[in-house]
Amino acid sequence: MKPVLSAPFKNASEEHAAIMDKVMLALLPATVIGLFVFGWPAVFLFLITLLSAIGWEAVCLRLAGRPIRSTLADHSALLTGWLLAISLPPWAPWWIGVLGGFIAIVVGKQVYGGLGQNLFNPAMLARVALLVSFPLEMTTWTPATLLGDGQPGFGAAWDIFLGQTIPDGYSGATSIGYLKTELSRGKMLPAIASEGDYNLGLNLIGLERGSLGETSAIALLSGGIWLLRQKVISWEIPVSLLLTVAVLAGVAVVLDPMHQPGIGFHLGSGGMLLFAFFIATDYVTSPNTRVGQMVFGAGCGALVFIIRTWGAYPEGIAFAILLMNSLTPLIDHYIRPRIYGRDFKGQPLEMEGKP
Amino acid sequence: MWKPYLSMLFKPGTIRGGVHPEPRKEATANLTIETAFPLPSILYLALQQHVGKAAEPVVRVGDRVLKGQLIAVSQGNVSAPLHAPTSGVIADIMDFPSAHPSALPTPTILLETDGLDEWREGIEEIDPFTLSAEEICARVGAAGVVGMGGAAFPSRVKLNLGRERRIETLIINGGECEPYLTCDDRLMQERAEAIVDGIRIMMRGLQCQQSIIGIEDNKLDAIEAMRRAVAPWASQMAVAVLPSLYPMGWDKQMIRYLTGLEVPAGGRATDIGVLMHNVGTAYAVHEAIRYQKPLISRVVTVSGGAVARPRNVEAPLGTPLSALLDFCGYQPERKARLILGGPMMGEALPHANLPLVKGAAGILALSVEEVSASDAKSCIRCSRCVTACPVGLLPLEMMSRIRAGQLESALKFGLKDCISCGSCSYVCPSEIPLVHYFKYANGELMAQQQAKHKSEQTRKLADERQARLERVRQEAAAQAAARKAQALAQAEARKAAQAAKASQSARSAETQTVESAS
C-alpha cells in the first residue's frame, strides 16, 4: 500500500475492527452472565448464531465477488451475530440462530450493499422477523438460575438445542410479559406485585427470565459507560432515550399508580439498557448530528414506552428501533448543523454595524 | 426576528469541532533558530511566490545585483515584488520546477551567489512612527511582504483594506496548530520584541487601537516571551492563551474564539472589524519598515522522521529544499513523504529539487511510521467527521454525493464552505480521504463553471457577430433604399419640372392666342 497522496497525511482513528471489538468487549460481562444463568442451551445458541452470521457474510461476499478474509476481519458480522444472539430466548433451537443470522446478514445488511449501507439495524430486523414468524419459539422464556441449579445437563441441553420441546415446568413469562398479562386480566398493580416474584434487585444482577444477554442491568450499564468513556459511542442517544423513558414512566405512574409500574421497572427491566447503549447507538442506522441523535433517542424512548404500555406485545424495543431507523434519513435531512458564518437556513449571517 | 440575536449565542470561547493530532513539535521546539545556514551557490527565485499576479523581472541575465535589490516588480493590485536574497549575478531567467505537488516549471530567476552578501545602500534604521499610515502600507508592499503562515497573500492589500474598513482589532495568529511546525513558536521565543514592534507598525498602518496575540497553550515559553514583550504596550495589546485544538490557526476559528463574532459567509474578517496577520508576517513587517530590509529570507521548520537533526533554519528564499534537508541530516531512504507545510494541510512534493518560497513554514520528510498508508474502507456513518468539522459541515454526506457524481447536491451541503483543514479525514476510521474528495469536487465545479463561461462567451460572440452582420445588411439595404428614393425623387422632380415647363409654354401659347384674338 502506498502512503496517502493528499493531506492530511496522518490518520488517527482506530480501525473498524477495533471499534467492533470494543463493543463486543463491553457486551462481554452481560453475555457471560447470560450464558451462566441460562446454561448450556444458551452457550450452543450463542455459538451457532455467531457462526451463522459469519457464514452468511462469507457466502454473500463470495457471491458479490468481494474479498472475504479482509472484510470478515472488520468484525462487523461478528458483532451483528452477537447482538442477535443475546436478544434471542436463551433456549431457542439451533435453526432460530441460523435463520436469524441469515435474515440479519443477508436481508438486513448485504442486500443493501454491505457494511454502512443498511437502513435497519440488522440484528433487530432479524429478531422482529423471527418473532412475527415463530411466536412460540421466540417467547419461550426459561428461568435464570446459578449454573447447575436445576439447569439441564450437557446432553439434555444438546437435545433442547436440536429442537426438543422444552419441558412445561421450565417455561414462564418475563417480568414485563407477566405484568402485561395480569394487567390485561383487569388486575391492579398491588395485587400483581404480591402474587408475582418480581424483584428489582435480582433483575439488576441478571437472575431473571429474558433474552440471553438482556437480563443483567448492571453489566449492561457498566459496559455502556465504558463505551462512552472509550468514545466509541456518544452520550446523546443513550441519555435522551433513557431520560424520555424515565420522564414518561414517571408521569404515568403519578397519573395511574394502579396500572403503571414506574421508572425503576422500565429502566431496569428487559433490554432497556441494551437498547440504549448498544442497539440504538448503531452508527449506520442512527442520525449523524448531535441534535438528530437526541431526537432519535427521544423517539426510541417514547416508542418503546408506548408499545410497552398500550401495544399488543409486552416488549417494544425491536419495533421501536426499526421504526426510528426508518426515520433516520428524514432526521438527517432536516436536522443539519449550522455552517460557520451562516444561519440555520444556510444564508450568510448579517454583518453587524458594518455596511 | 431572531437573526440579530443569533451571534449572541456565540460567546467568546466557543469552539466547534477540531481534533487533537499528535503535536510532534518537541524535536524542534527547544532548539534555537539556525542562522548559520551556508549560502547555496544558486538561488532559484520563482516569480510567483504569492497569491495574485506573478512579478515581472527588472533585471537581465548577467546583471550583478546586491542583497535586497529589487529584481522583479509586482503586477497589478494583488501581487508582490521580489528582491535579491544576497549579492551575485543573474545567471538565467527560465522555467524551473515550482514548490507545488505538480512541480511544474514556472518562470524563475536564477541568482548565482558571490558569497560577499553585500547589501544595497539605504539599509538603515528609521523610526517607523514618523511614517504615515499610507506610507507604512506602501512600504510593506514594496518590501514584498506576504502572509508568512502559508497563505502568502500580499500583506499590503490586507492592510489597505483594513484601514479603509476602519477595523477595531488586529489579531496576530501565533496558533501554529499544525503538528511538527515550530517556526512561529521559535520566532516568538527569540524575537518577541521585533514581533511586537511589527505589530505596532501594522497597527499604525491600520490606524487601529488594539491588538490581540493568540497563542496555543502548548507554547508556554512563547507565551511567556510575548507577555514580557507586550508589557510596555499593555494598553494596546494583550496575549490571549488559546486551547491547543487543531485547527485553532484557522483565522475564522480564532476570530470566533477571541471576539465571539463570526465572519459572515462570503465575507471577510474586515466585515466584522477584525484583521488577522501571522506572527511571521509581523516580524517581516518589522524588518521591512524599521530596518528597510525587504523580505528575502524566512524561518522554516525542517523536521520529520527522515531528518536526523530536525530544527528551524533561517534560509534565503530560493534555497533548494534539498540543501535545507541535507543541512539537517536528510535520510532519503527513510522518507515516505516529502511535505511542504504541515502534515494536516501541507502538500506532497514529488522531490526536493524545488526552491524555498515565501509561504513555506515547514519542510517535512516523514518516515513510513509517520504517515498513514491504508486503503479506504466503507463508510460506517460513525459521524466522527461531523463532530470533528470546525465549519459545521456533513463530510460523510458530501462524500457520498461526490462519489455518486452529484456535485450540485454536495454543493447544497456546503461544499464551498469547506476549508480543507483535514480534520474529517484525520478522524475517519474508514480512512476515507474526505478532503481529497472535496478538493476534487471544488476543482471539478470550477472547471465546469469555466467551461460554461467559455461557451457563454462563445455564444455571445456568435450572437454579436450575427447582430453585426444583420446591422450591416440593414444599413446596406437602408442605403440602397435611400439611394433609390433619392433617384426617384430626382426623377419626380425632373418630371415635375418638365410638366411645369410644358404647361408654361402652353400657357404662353394661350396668352399669345388671346392676345392675337383681342
Write down how many β-strands of chain B occur, each being a DSSP E stretch of 2 or more residues: 16
Q: How many individual β-strands of chain A? A: 0
Overall mean confidence score, pLDDT of chain B: 91
Put simply, the count of helices of chain A is 16
- Low-confidence stretches of chain B at least 5 residues in length (pLDDT < 50)? 1-10
Describe the structure.
The complex is a heterodimer of chains A (355) and B (518). Chain A starts with 15 loop residues before the first helix and ends in a 21-residue tail after the last helix. With 355 residues, chain A is an all-alpha fold. Chain A has one domain. The mean pLDDT of chain A is 89. Chain A has 16 helices and no strands. Chain A is globular, with a radius of gyration of 22 Å. The longest helix of chain A has 25 residues, at 40-64. With 518 residues, chain B is α/β, with parallel strands linked by helices. Chain B folds into two domains: 19-118 and 125-336, NADH-ubiquinone oxidoreductase 51kDa subunit (Rossmann fold); 384-444, no CATH class. Helix content of chain B is 38%, strand content 17%. Chain B has helices at 3-6, 26-29, 133-142, 155-164, 183-190, 192-206, 220-230, 251-259, 279-290, 321-327, 384-388, 395-403, 407-412, 423-427, 434-517; strands spanning 42-46, 56-57, 64-65, 70-73, 82-83, 88-97, 105-113, 169-174, 210-216, 237-242, 274-278, 297-303, 311-316, 335-340, 347-349, 362-367. In chain B, the strands form four sheets. Chain B has a five-stranded mixed sheet with strand order 13-12-16-14-15, sandwiched between helices. In chain B, strands 1-7-6-3 form a four-stranded antiparallel sheet, with no helix packed on it. In chain B, 48% of the residues are buried. Mean pLDDT of chain B is 91; it is low at 1-10. At the A-B interface, α1 of A face α1, β14, α11, α14 and α15 of B.
Main attributes of the structure:
heterodimer; A: 355 residues; mainly alpha; 0% strand; globular; B: 518 residues; alpha/beta; Rossmann fold; 2 domains; five-stranded mixed sheet; four-stranded antiparallel sheet; 15 helices; disordered N terminus
